[in-house]
Amino acid sequence: MSNAWRLRLLVGLALMGGAAPGCGGDDGAECGAGTVEVDGECLPAEAACGTGTVYDATARTCVGAIECAEGTMLMGGECVPDGSVFCGGNTVFDTTSGTCVPDPDALCEGDLVFVMETATCVDPDELLEDMADVRELAEPNDPTFNDAAMAQAVDLSSGSASFYGCVEPMDFDSDGVLDADNDFFSVDVDGPTLLRVRTDGIRGANAAVAFLSGDPEGALTENGWQRLVVSLSGDGSDQKLFLPAAGTYLIVATDARSLLFGEPAGGANQCYFVQLDTETLPTPTAVTPGTPVEGDFDEPRFFSVAATRGQLLFSTVSELDGAGEPADRESTASAQVTLVQELFRSSAEETTGTVSDVAFGLEAGETVWFVVDKAYDLALDTTDFQLEVQDAGAVELPEDGTIDVTHVDETFSWGFFEATAGDVVHLTFEQGDLDGLRSVGTFQPAGNGGGICDGCSEADVYIQIAETGIHYVRWYNGDGSDGDTYPLTFTRTAITPTALTAGTAGSGTLADHDRAFFSADLRTADWIEWSAANLVNVTDLDVTLYARDAFGVLDTMVSSVDGGILTDTATLERILRDEGIQVLVSVTDDDSVDGDETFDVLLSNVSYVDLSTVMPGTDITRMGEMAPAGAEPLRYLLEGAPF
After folding, report:
1. CA-based nearest residue to 182, from 154, 143, 147
2. Contact, 512 vs 474, CB < 8 A?
3. For residue range 430-456, what is the model confidence (pLDDT) as tens digits?
4. Is the pTM of this model over 0.85?
5. Distance between CA atoms of residues 414 and 425, nearest Å
6. Which domains does the chain show, CATH number per domain?
C-alpha cells in the first residue's frame, strides 16, 4: 500500500467520522462524504461542482478552484502534502513547488548554506564559480603581457550577466618581479545604461573592477571617463554606476589592492565573482539654472534642464561635509557626466572637491542631463553634494550690428553664432571707447577652442569651422564696473571655400574680404604644382595652406602648413607622395588689398617618371633621354629605402 494512498485513506476516514450535514433541508437526502445533494439526489462532488469550483473535503462544499502543485492536494482552501513526497536531511516541503527545499532552520552554522545534491553545509563562495556565465581564460590573459590577449565578452543583452576569475600575481614579463594579475572582460550596451555591479572576493581576495571605454580614440576616453567598483572595508562591493553612451566597455577585474595601489595582491585560489544587472534609468529631476540642489553619492543622481537656443550652461558639483559646507573628501572622487538628448557630451572629475563642466552648442528644445556620480568612493558613510547649474547669458551675435553688454564682475560675457562645417567665418568686432577686452576667444559646439586676442579693442579674424552648430565668442571687460553697460559692434560673414580639382582653375576676388579661400584634397597626390593666371590689379599673390580639419582662428589657433608667392610666371611645386592632406588655401594680395583684385588659381598634377625605390648599393641608370630646348623639364621621382 503506497504512502500516498495511506494518507488519502486516513483523511477520508477522518472526514467521515463527523456527522454529514443534510443537503437541501429536513426532507432532503442525507449525503455521505465526497457527495453533494442536488435536487434531492446525492451526486459525486466532482460532478456537482460548477465550472471554476472544486469540492473541499474539509468544508464539504464547493469552493473556488485552487491549482495545487504535484505532490499536494487541496484541503481547507490550501494545498497540503498528499504524502507522495517525503522530505528529510535538512530539507522541508514547499507547497508551492511540491518539492523538498533547503530548511532555513537547518543545522548549517554561520554563513554556510545547505547543498541539496550533497546534503552538506558549504561556504556559499564555493558555489559561485559554477554560477558564472563567463570564466577568465588561462594566463597570461592581460594584453600588457600578451599581445594576443583579448577581453572576454560578457553578454548583457538579457539584462543580467556574471563572470568569474582568479587573482594570482606572477612574473608575467620574466623580469624577476611579481606583476599584478589583471583580467579583462567587456560588455556592450546600446545606449546610456544604469548598471548594478556586485563583486565578491573568494578565499581571501578583495574583488574590484574598473570600467573603461573600449574605444581608445572615442569621446569617453578623450574625456578621461573611468569608474571603479571597489571597497577596502570588505571583500567586495555593491554599487550602481552609469555607462553614459552606447558602445563597448572594458572591465578590468583584479584585487582592490592592485587596482588602487598597484600591489601584486592576491594568491593561489584567491578569486572573484562579479554580477552585472541593468536597471531602469530614472526620470531626471528638473532643475532651474541658478537654484542649487542637493543629493548624495550613494548612486548616480540624474538632473535635467530644458535648453533654449544658444544657451550655455555651466555646472558645478561640490562635495559637502557633515555641516553641509563645501569640502574636499579625499576618500570620494566625485564626478559628473553631461548628456544632450541622451547623447554623451562631456565628463569631468573633481579637483579639490569640486567638479566643473560646461554644456556648449545647445539648441532650443534639447534636454540636458547632468548625472552626478563618482569615479570611486572609499568612504564608510554617505557623502553629500550640491549641484548648481548657471546660465551664462549668451546672446546671439549680429551679422552686422551692435549689442549692449552688461558687465558682471569676475564673469565672462558670451555671444553665439551658427556656423557650418567647412566654412570660414570672417569675424570683426570693435569695442569703442573702452581700453581693451581680455581673454577674447572662440569655441565650437564640442567646447574646445582658443584665443582670438588679449587686451584688444578690436579684431579682424578668419575662423575655420570644423563642426556644424552653435559657436561662441567669449570676452571679459577688465575695466568694467559691475552693472555697467557698454556697446560692442560685430560683423560676421560665412565664406564657403571654392573646391579645387586638379586641372581646373578656381576664380578668386578680394572685393568683399581681404582673403579668398579655396579647398583641395591632396591625399592621393604625388607631385603637384600651384600656379596663378588672369591676374587683375594684383602682381604677387600670397598663398597660405592650412590643415582642413582644424578649428580656430587662422594664424593664431590654426598654423599654416605650407605657402609661398605666386605670380603670372612663378609657381610652387611640391612632392607629396603619401604625405598629402586636405587643405584650406588662403590667397591675398602680397602688397596691400584695394578690393579690386581678381585672379585664377590652378592646381595641377605634375608629370614625372617613377624610378620606384632605390636600395642601398644599387645603381639606377637612365640612358638615351633628352630634354628638348624650351620644353618642360624632365622630372624623376624615386624613393630611398630606409636603412
Report:
1. 143
2. no
3. 987 767 899 999 999 989 999 999 999
4. no
5. 17
6. 3-81 (no CATH), 91-122 (no CATH), 130-279 (2.60.120.380), 285-381 (2.60.120), 395-493 (2.60.120.380), 498-605 (2.60.120.380)
